[in-house]
Amino acid sequence: MKNFRVEAIILSIGLLLLGVFIERGFSEFAGRDRSVNVKGLAEMEVPADKVTWPLVYKSLGNDLNALYEEIKRSNRTITEFLKEKGLTDKEISINAPVIVDMKAERYGNNQDSPYRYNVTTVITVTSNKVDLVRGLITEQGELLKRGIAITTGDYQYNIQYEYTGLNTIKPQMIEEATKNARQAAEKFAKDSESTLGKIRHANQGQFSISDRDPNTPHIKKVRVVTTIDYSLED
Predict the structure, then answer these.
(1) How confident is the model at residue 108 (pLDDT cuts 50, 70, 90)?
(2) 12 assigned to some structural domain
(3) What is the pLDDT of residue 153?
(4) Mind giving me the DSSP string for 73-141?
(5) pLDDT value at position 224?
(6) What is the reported pLDDT for 219?
(7) What is the CATH number of the domain that holds 60?
(8) CB-based burial of residue 209 (10 Å sphere; 0-12 exposed, 13-18 middle, 19+ buried)?
(9) At CA 118, angle to CA 116 and CA 124, rounded to 5?
(10) Which pLDDT score is estimated for 193?
(11) Residue 75 and residue 92: Cα distance in Å, rounded?
(12) In this entry, which stretches build a coiled coil (predicted)?
């Protein structure tokens, strides 16, 4: 009988300890599963460091040989204008002219046109001298004095501004986005009466580059959103 009582006491103590350990284990497991997911935003405005400027002009005529000579003179005049203003041969490229035979156009209203051929020529400037090129764009009317009318408004030949220095500012922006994400996580932890723990998982996110607004395409807005999981502790 005495041995039975001892065994019962030992068994009871064992079951009590087992319950304590199980409860503690569940608490620790639940604690490990507590986390907060936050996002951090970083934005920066930067000037474009590359510009592509297509200069487009039209030529009309009936004699292809005469048009060819006219286009050669016009290309030479435009190139000289650009080089006088500070651009180099490497920044100027002359595209092959596009010739439309208006008499052969079946679905156009060109049968009454006094000219048979409509030639489109494009000279493209690609340069890192963004400010210089922007100034030239405002001065292109000067070409009228030299007998060349640059056409505008064709969506195929829009001026394009780019920013190519993303790798230079990436570390700074990621640091700022991470800092902003941590501030949000700390606020959440404080409101939930918890302590912010270590980073469990982090996603840098995609960088995006867009125009600041439609009127200033030469100023770019760089944006990144990071997503971070922090553990929460009591």
Answers:
(1) low
(2) no
(3) 76
(4) HHHHHHHHHHHHTT--GGGEEEPPPEEEEGGG-TTSS-TT-S-SEEEEEEEEEEES-HHHHHHHHHHGG
(5) 96
(6) 97
(7) 3.30.70
(8) middle
(9) 165
(10) 85
(11) 11
(12) none
Same-domain pairing of 152 and 232: no
| Number of independent structural domains in the chain | 2
Q: Which residue has the tokens 């408004």?
A: 153
Same domain for 131 and 218: no
What pTM, to 2 d.p., does this model score? 0.78
Q: Is 166 in contact with 48 (CB distance < 8 Å)? A: no
Domain range for 132 is 50-162
Identify the residue whose tokens are 């048979």.
Answer: 116
Provide the mean pLDDT of the chain.
86
- Could you tell me the CATH number of the domain that includes residue 222? 3.30.110.170
For residues 141 and 138, what is the distance between their CA atoms, to the nearest angstrom? 7
Report the candidate in 85, 81, 113 with the shortest Cα–Cα distance to residue 100.
113
**Does 126 reside within a domain?**
yes
β pairing state of 35-47 and 219-233: antiparallel
First to last CA, the chain: 48
Count Cβ atoms within 10 A of the Cβ of residue 40 and give its class: 0-12 exposed, 13-18 middle, 19 or more buried.
buried
Map tokens 């125009």 to a residue: 211
**Which of the four pLDDT bands, split at 50, 70 and 90, describes residue 109?**
low
Each residue's pLDDT tens digit, 20-58: 444 554 444 444 567 889 999 999 999 999 999 999 999
143 and 193 in a common domain: no
Considering only CA atoms, give the Rg of the chain: 35
pLDDT at 105: 66
